[in-house]
Amino acid sequence: MGRKxxxxxxxxxxxxxxxxxxxxxxxxxxxxxxxxxKTLRKRCREDLDRGVAEANATxxxxxxxxxxxxRLRSKFAADSLVEGDGFELLVPWHxxxxxxxx
Length: 102
Description:
Structural class: mainly alpha
Order of helices and strands: HHHHH
Helix content: 55-70%
């Protein structure tokens, strides 16, 4: 008798998108949802890609908003980047993901 087919539903797809978005490896995502890595890539390819894209878009939005706040603040104060903005945490994300080049 063969193995029971892995059922992919909306809850699984949402979880895969979330886990991919926070940067988990596909092998680890497969372990968490209970399937083989090959099955994950075959059945949830769009969700893996979409999760990463959505996370990158979110971080890009925060980075853009922080940059705009700093630009506006620089018109009024000498210290344009106030510690605690989270800006210093967003830049490494973009560097690691290949968005920023120096």
